[in-house]
Amino acid sequence: MIQSLKGFRDILPGDVEVWQHMEMTARDLFEDFGFKEIRPPVMEKTELFKRSIGEETDIVGKEMYTFKSRGGKSITLRPEATASVVRSYIQHKMYAVEPVRKLYTIGPMFRSENPQQGRYRQFYQINAEVFGIASPLIDAQLIFMLMTFFSRLQVKDIGAHINSLGCKKCRPEFHKALSVLLSKVGDSLCDDCNKRSLKNPLRTLDCKVTSCRNALAEAPAIVDFLCEECTEHFDAVKRFLDRQGISFEVDKQLVRGLDYYTRTTFEIQTGLLGAQNAVAGGGRYDGLVKALGGPEQPAIGFAVGCDRLIEIMTLDKKAYMKNPSVFVAALGTQSMDMAYGWVCELNNIGIPTEMDYSGRSLKSQMKRADRMNAAYVLIVGEEEIKKGEAVLRDMNTKEQALIPLNSIVDNLQKALKIRNTKHETRNNIK
Ligand code: ATP
Ligand code: MG
To answer: Which ligand lies nearest the alpha carbon of 258?
Structure first.
């Protein structure tokens, strides 16, 4: 038997309905906030990720699925979406007509990581990116939208962590201070961090190795080095969040794994998933559009890790299962012929209807209807055809009614409506 690759999994019916609900919730909410969907390809030139994410990151250094195309070019399965969205923004000159763009995309990402709970090699993200707005209002609004998204999905035990990474102007001073510490504690750092110390010291703060964490526990905080503009920007974000009642924690060690972040950076963490505690991450990347060949345009975005989000949604998953409304139990060839027509017509008018295609006994068809959780079974056999009436059985109450075979689809629709209202009334009285 051929099995799926390690770290790659199937999302099966029974689970997929919750995924659909999560995606619909995101679409509804994001579109109300003015976001438009964009669907970039899942493969790009390797260079795009190297340039945007940075050579010294774990993603580019260790985690990318990179291949040679048949023509010998280096191509990569996208490890994240921002780079592609930025490329698209530049390639299609979206900045020219209306530089302010709010875009979202939903889809798979690929990273060759060690698979474990909450960490897959193909995983899914919902990304939102905003171009052309420098104001801290949008930073706060994005975090507000993200927290609203989580609350609509009834996610518990999450908290927003925010930090500022400064800008080109103030970060060098911070680098200097951090480098002083790094040169002192070099012996306690992992090999990666020793390399990072030279090439990209900020990233050492992101290291998960315990000895590095301990050695850097007293590291200087970027927020203490912010220039005036960056301080004002960060203060404004905090003020807006406060005003909207969004609680957050300023996490001075929070740096993102990617090179292009500036100023506001944030992560939504949960206490429910052990080490894989980040369910979303994002921040400003004011330098990236220019770095990839576009004009100077500020930008900010976030990525939600869907696989982890699904784990912490507390919704009743059963409520999202789509069961047939009607199961047509047809006995004998003539009934099956008729049933086939009804099923197609009912499906077509939005009443999920199933039938048994093999003409088994009534008992086994009823069993199947039960297994499928059908709300009603419409029984039709020789007897019913003779009488000109089919039997409609309510699988919940076990009540039965007769439905004339003439214009059965209309009659069935009416019967279902009456019964549904009856149910509702009954439920209300309860
Ligand atoms: P982590 O620190 O957990 O490795 P990251 O910093 O690499 O996360 P980002 O690049 O910020 O993650 O991606 C955004 C989100 O995507 C993460 O917060 C997480 O929820 C999710 N994510 C990242 N990598 C994986 C993975 N391999 N499997 C499942 N979800 C992932
Ligand atoms: Mg990672």
So the answer is: 1
Domain 16-170+226-317 sits in which CATH superfamily? Bira Bifunctional Protein; Domain 2 (3.30.930.10)
pLDDT in tens, 318-346: 888 888 999 999 999 999 999 999 999 99
Cβ(71)–Cβ(87) below 8 Å:
no
CB atoms within 10 A of CB 316: 10
- The count of other CB atoms within 10 Å of the CB of residue 145 is 19
First to last CA, the chain: 52
Determine the atom of ligand 1 nearest the C-alpha atom of 79: 10
Q: Which pLDDT tens digit goes with each residue over 148-175?
A: 999 999 998 899 999 999 998 998 899 8
Residue 366: Cβ within 10 Å count: 18
Establish whether residue 159 lines the binding site of ligand 1, counting it when its CB lies within 6 angstroms of any ligand atom: no
Question: In angstroms, what is the span from residue 360 Cα to ligand 1's centroid?
Answer: 50
State whether the beta carbon of 265 lies less than 6 angstroms from ligand 1.
no
Ligand 1 centroid to 179 CA: how many Å? 27
CATH fold of the domain at 322-429: Rossmann fold (3.40.50)
| pTM for this prediction | 0.91
Alpha-carbon span 3 to 24, nearest angstrom: 30
Compute the distance between CA of residue 55 and CA of residue 162 in angstroms, rounded to an integer.
25
Give the span between the Cα atoms of 321 and 306, in whole angstroms. 19
Give the closest residue to 56 by CA, choosing from 198, 157, 166. 198
Q: What is the dihedral of CA 417, 421, 422, 425, to 10 degrees?
A: 180
Question: Residue for token digits 């003539």?
Answer: 334
What are the structural domain ranges in the chain?
Answer: 16-170+226-317, 322-429
Handedness of CA 93, 97, 98, 102 (dihedral sign): negative
113 lines ligand 1 (CB under 6 A): yes
